[in-house]
Specification:
2 copies of one chain form a homodimer. Chain A is α+β, with helices and mostly antiparallel strands. Chain A folds into 2 domains: 1-39 and 115-230, 60s Ribosomal Protein L30, Chain: A; 42-114, CofE-like domain (CofE-like fold). In chain A, 26% of the residues lie in helices and 22% in strands. The first copy, chain A, is built from 6 helices and 11 strands. Chain A has helices spanning 10-17, 32-38, 52-61, 65-73, 119-134, 188-198; strands spanning 27-31, 42-44, 75-82, 85-90, 95-97, 111-113, 139-146, 155-162, 168-169, 185-186, 208-211. In chain A, helix 1 (10-17) crosses helix 5. At the A-B interface, strand 4, strand 8, strand 10 and helix 6 of A face strand 4, strand 8, strand 10 and helix 6 of B.
């Protein structure tokens, strides 16, 4: 894939990079960064004027106050700001470090890449674009790498989704012993994002991975999107 | 795989179920439940006498006080007990619902399956047993399904590990634009566990999944184990 800039037609670029046998039951996992860049969801540090809260958080956590201001702009709520880490809930409802604002793989030190404004909408648009370009309708998953509260390392999760069931609910079904499964809902889309990340080197220019074999979770309609993976705030035990 | 009971030689059972071309670079992902059962890590509700704390937590959360006592016995620390959910840190340091105590896929309603006492040790023993049985030395990953604080649905993670790098550290390397990657450590083992879960139906008697293509993360020595995936308690922002 070439480098992506604001306004680039990424559906066309991805279609050109896809194998000729791209199929309806495939899942195309796309790193959010190229989606964000194509959508112009980029800010330059030199254009940011940090407010008082950003300056205070930056001083407490050893960060650039302008970068912190961008994080605050992307946050609906800051959950924790300690020891150099800011964990916040974004306006979409995603809970992650730095509101998903990222400085790696950008054109210069001055540029920060934000999450797409509507990642499910981005996934739907990309799916429609792929159908126009290729005549097939794979599911599209927009991914990002998230840290976890109690585990080290990051895993990729689905932040945008079109055409893949986000969750598979085993409840009410019976296990191999005939016993009813009680509390087992699998986060299929997040597992697909994590699986795709295993195939991708972060230092390569490979922004997309094709996942096959998940036909049973691929749906014709776009479905509820990755929004369905967000635990409602009133169920949050770790505010 | 047949049903597993305490004392069963699961290395032999897995070797018999494995494909003939099982190789050193493969990763055998094994659901902890058969490991726990083979190790006798099972308790019967009728043998449990709940204490006062268990009775109180059970009353507050609509649970069986005996099951709560088992959860408390497996917990080093209860982080949250609200709305029917108990989140605790196990003696191994794993943070999860019900200290990993599970009632599905057991012989009867009376039986609860615990996590292995030493999941990394279980993985190492299984790897050694597979080498004895098959003459090859695949990596072994013992998995469980964990919920997440802010996301719905469960994903599988590595709770025990032998022969697979738990984390891959991209820091210090350069991204595709030549910019240094700053905070990107991938939880490879958790991603492998999640990927394996996509290939497994929870209502089938399929306790193991063979993952191929991860040779670059498979190591000859057993390595640091899944313990290396635990965020140290002093770094925990969500106690």
């Amino acid at each position: 894939m070439p480098d992506v800039r604001a306004g680039d037609p990424i559906a066309r670029l991805l279609a050109a990079a896809a194998p000729p046998d791209l199929a309806d039951g495939d899942v195309l996992v796309v790193a959010h960064k190229i989606v964000s860049k194509a959508e112009g969801r980029v800010r330059r540090l030199r254009d940011v004027l940090p407010g008082e809260r950003a300056r205070r958080l930056a001083a407490d956590n050893g960060k650039d106050p302008r970068a912190v201001q961008v994080v605050l702009d992307e946050s609906a709520e800051v959950l924790r700001a300690e020891r150099g880490v800011i964990v916040s809930r974004t306006h979409h409802g995603l809970v992650c470090a730095n509101a998903g604002v990222d400085a790696s793989n950008t054109a210069g030190d001055d540029e920060l890449v934000l999450l797409p404004a509507d990642p499910d909408g981005s996934a739907r648009a990309l799916r429609a674009g792929l159908e126009r370009e290729c005549g097939v309708r794979p599911a599209v998953l927009v991914s990002d790498s998230f840290g976890r509260a109690w585990r080290l390392g990051q895993t990729d999760v689905a932040i945008g989704l079109a055409g893949l069931a986000p969750l598979h609910d085993w409840r009410g079904r019976r296990d191999a012993r005939g016993r009813e499964l009680r509390a087992t809902v699998s986060a299929v889309a997040d597992a697909a994002a994590a699986a795709a990340d295993l195939a991708r080197a972060k230092d390569s220019a490979e922004p997309a991975v094709l996942v096959r074999g998940l036909e049973r979770f691929v749906i014709r309609e776009d479905g509820p999107g990755a929004r369905a993976l967000l635990r409602p705030r009133h169920e949050d035990l770790f505010l």
